[in-house]
Amino acid sequence: MTDAPLAIRALLQDGGSLRLDQDGGEGWRRITEASLEEYRAHHAADGYPEATRETMAMFEGFIAKWAGIWGADSMIDLGCGIGAALPPYVRNIAGTLIYAGLDPLDETPERDYPFVCGRLEDLAAKPLDKKFGLALFVTSLDHFEDARNALALAARITGGGHAVIWCGLHDSPLIARNDLSIKISALCQSNRNILTRMLAFLAYGLVTWPRVALALSRRERKLAAGRPLDNLHCHYFTEQSLKALLTQAGTVHEFARCPGTNSAFAAVTLNDAT
Ligand SMILES: C[S@@+](CC[C@H](N)C(=O)[O-])C[C@H]1O[C@@H](n2cnc3c(N)ncnc32)[C@H](O)[C@@H]1O
User: Fold this and answer.
1) CATH number 3.40.50.150 given to 8-170+234-270
2) Which ligand 1 atom minimizes the distance to the CA of 81?
3) Does 80 sit in the ligand 1 pocket, CB within 6 Å?
4) CB 3.0-4.6 Å disulfide test: which of 39, 169, 197, 269 passes with 191?
5) What confidence score (pLDDT) does residue 176 get?
């Protein structure tokens, strides 16, 4: 006997939540739950850092642009987090483009938006009575056990295989630029006089640059050996590895590096190759 299709049409129209039986390996669940404290502070208490909010505002424009080009009427946010309120990166566009979130973490039963509690893998295993117009991966692609499979599953649950992706990159020059530019700007603000500014730069350079150089080479060695950089992600993409993955997964229409950050945005039409 085949399963009855999941009522996605009613979810998008009327809101509410759907709960799926969840699978998923032990290692993946450990990684997913290791970030819960950060998610409680950021998603649940709406306490995103200012720099993240700025990138979210840029990403919202990127989603709107590609939803308009593709004529999408709805979006499913694959790994939306645990917030009860709409995530900041869709607050201005959710009125015109119906938003639904999906996440395996069942921390927040009541949400202000249609919500599917489960993994993408659990949703894609079911027949749906309606496909979504667009899939979003918002800093979530590196949290999937199998990122290539996740992209193929996103193609299956969307009408045209359209996806918009925001992914953090781990290339060490990008990380260095990010961290150091924040510090340099703070030094400039707290040292307005040329002399103290020069001394501050000098002291900072002597103390910090060697530490940064060491941290970068450690990062590069780990990336080259395929070792994890922390215990919070399943993958650590560089610009090259992300582009390679996306190119294999479908047609990349736009790949934009977000200025002043280590984030990249991509718009892709995915192939369902599962
Ligand atoms: C870094 S958070 C991003 C949350 C939100 N998109 C944001 O940017 O604030 C990554 C999310 O991906 C979710 N996730 C991990 N594996 C997943 C899977 N297999 N299917 C769906 N979501 C998953 C995690 O539970 C987590 O909430």
Assistant:
1) yes
2) 27
3) yes
4) 197
5) 87
User: What is the distance between the alpha carbons of residues 93 and 70, in angstroms, rounded to a whole number?
Assistant: 15
For the chain, give every domain's residue range.
8-170+234-270, 172-225
Residue 259 and residue 138 in contact, taking contact as beta carbons nearer than 8 Å:
no
Ligand 1 centre distance from Cα of residue 198 (Å): 43
- Nearest residue (by CA) to ligand 1, atom 4, is 81
Pocket test for ligand 1, best of 32, 36, 113, 165 (most atoms within 8 A of CB): 32
Chain-centre distance for alpha carbon 25: 21
Instruction: Return the closest-CA partner of residue 4 out of 117, 129, 124.
Output: 129
Do 228 and 236 meet the contact criterion of CB atoms below 8 Å apart? Answer: yes
Which residues in the chain show pLDDT less than 70?
1-2, 273-274
Please report the atom of ligand 1 found closest to the CA of residue 120: 20
